[in-house]
Structure formats: C-alpha cells, structure tokens
Design brief:
Elements (H helix, E strand, L loop, with lengths): L3 E5 L23 H12 L3 E6 L4 H7 L9 E6 L21 H6 L9 E5 L2 E2 L2 H13 L6 E8 L10 E8 L5 E12 L5 E4 L5 E3 L5 E9 L3 H16 L9 H10 L4 E6 L5 E2 L5 H14 L9
Parallel strand pairs: 1-2, 1-4, 2-3, 6-12
Antiparallel strand pairs: 4-11, 5-13, 6-11, 7-8, 7-11, 8-9, 9-10
Helix pairs in contact: 1-4, 5-6
C-alpha cells in the first residue's frame, strides 16, 4: 500500500496577503505545491488529500488540484470551524479553526492508510519525501510508529519578519524527546535567535536546534490519539477566542505520556517557504538554482 500525502492548505496566508498556495513560483507558473506533489509522486506516494476550506474549494480545485488529476489520486476534505467532538460547540466570537491538529483531524474519515502531513506553502526538498515514504512503507505494520522530518532552525528563518516553529530536542537514540511550539521567532540585533514559548516568555533558542516544519509521518492510529488530545484541548482551552491546538504539541504530549516514540528523519534537502511577500523572490531564485543543478526538470508536466 502506497502512503498518502496530506496537505494542509486551508490557510488564507493572512501575513502574505492572499492565497499563497496558488501563487506561481516556478519558470512555467508552477506553485510550491506543484513541486511538493512532484516530489511525493517520485518518492512513492500514491494519493494526495488536500485539506481546504469550502469557501475557496472550487478555485483551489481548478487552480491547483486539477494539475495533478492525471498523475495521482486527488481527494479533498474540508476544515470546518463547526467540526468539533461531541459535547463541544463554537464559542461566541470565534472566527478561525483551532490550528494544525484540528486541520489533520478533518481527514479522520478520509485517510485509512499510512500518511505524511505537510504545509501547502513550504518547499521541503525531494530527500524529505523520500525519507518519509521509506519510513511509512517500512513501518506500515507498526501502528504506533511516527516520525518527523527536521531542519536546523537557522535554515528556516525569514529575513522579513518573525516565524512560528516547533523547537525540538532529540534523545541519545535519535528519537524526538520533546517539542515546544514557539511563536515570533527572529534573529535580533545581538545575533541571537529568540522566540516566545508556550509559557509566554521570550528567550534565546540555541543554534542548531532541530525544528519541526510540519512534515510528519503517521499511521492511521494517530487519528484516535489526536482525537483524545483534541478533546482534552477543547475542555481546557476551547473557549479562548484565539486558542490553537498544534500537531507538535499533540506529539509532545504523547511522548511525555509514554504513548509514542517519534523518529527524527534527518534530511539533506533544502527547506524554504513564503511567509511574507518579500520571501517570494528568494523562493523563486532557490527553485531556479535547483533546476540548474538538475534536481528538477525545467517544466514539471
């Protein structure tokens, strides 16, 4: 059974100023998603499922999904604000869904096979997909197996504003020991990189810290684990107007409770993404360099 690629594409890219998932980056109008799916197909993935919002579903299907229909099975699920566990309802004033864990949860009825999770607007590099696919195929009969593709923090920053990252610690065996979501990360005037952790404090993040860029590999049992964690989150924080439940936080909780061991897949691939409009020029240039190096054809299709 080939693994599935689950793409988190419900965000509108508020800091970027539009649907960056549809913004052309390649020499023939290719989006970052074009390169992601291209890499996934040649790495052994057999299906792609896009998690999107209903209000831009048709535009997304025509502008993005249609590009892949003749090369890989394409399906869609919707992340809905009202899609909550039994006993919970949307609090008054809540406008946005509850983060990446809530987004993955939207695919619980659509994905029954081993799967990887990525962001729609991040370029991860072919090696990352190859390692994730290899892991999922190898561990297909191990329901508790999960993995994270990690990148050094300093290779994931933007020159044009702060970013949010899951900062990780790895144990002696190479497994993920701890992951904490940091926000507003940036390099400051003294040369140090700082960010705000879950406790609300802004502190230095050591150079070389492995970072979760939301490239995960799971078996389907993760949906049950995610549901349990999300119910707990909703009970504790669901009424807060801007609270979010993150995939790294769920994985960290499982590790702390001794319910999971998460492998860290070290990749030689390059990561880059578009958080701010000025990031686009760097992404376009990086793709051109990858084409010149023979990593990608001049035209994908």
């Amino acid at each position: 059974m080939k693994p599935t690629l689950l793409v988190l594409a419900a965000g509108m890219g508020s800091r970027y100023g539009g649907l960056k998932q549809m913004d052309p980056m390649g020499p023939h109008g290719e989006t970052v998603l074009d390169y992601s799916v291209f890499d996934a197909i040649r790495s052994g993935f057999g299906r792609v499922v896009f998690i999107i919002r209903e209000d831009f579903a048709e535009a997304f299907k025509q502008s993005v999904g249609a590009r892949f229909a003749d090369r890989i099975q394409v399906d869609y699920v919707f992340q809905k604000l009202s899609d909550l566990p039994a006993g919970f309802s949307v609090p008054e004033g809540r406008e946005k869904p509850w983060g990446t864990a809530h987004a993955v949860r939207a695919a619980r009825d659509a994905v029954k096979e081993p799967f990887a999770v990525i962001n729609a607007d991040d370029f991860y590099g072919r090696d990352a997909y190859a390692r994730a696919a290899e892991f999922l195929i190898k561990e297909a009969n191990n329901p508790d197996a999960m993995a994270m593709v990690g990148y050094p923090l300093e290779n994931t920053l933007s020159d044009y504003g702060t970013v949010n990252r899951g900062i990780c610690k790895v144990d002696a065996s190479g497994a993920l020991a701890e992951v904490e979501e940091y926000v507003n990360i940036g390099r400051e005037d003294d040369g140090h990189v700082r960010g705000v952790g879950l406790n609300g404090e802004r502190r230095v993040i050591p150079t070389g810290s492995p970072v979760s860029m939301n490239f995960w590999a799971f078996n389907p049992v993760f949906f049950a684990q995610l549901e349990e964690a999300f119910v707990k989150f909703m009970a504790e924080s669901g009424t807060q107007p801007k609270s979010e439940c993150y995939i790294p936080t769920v994985v960290d909780q499982l590790i702390r409770e001794g319910k999971a061991r998460c492998a860290v897949l070290q990749t030689t691939g390059s990561w880059f993404g578009v958080t701010y409009p000025d990031d686009k020029a760097f992404v376009v240039e990086s793709i051109q360099k990858a084409i010149a190096a023979g990593e990608y054809p001049e035209k994908l299709s």
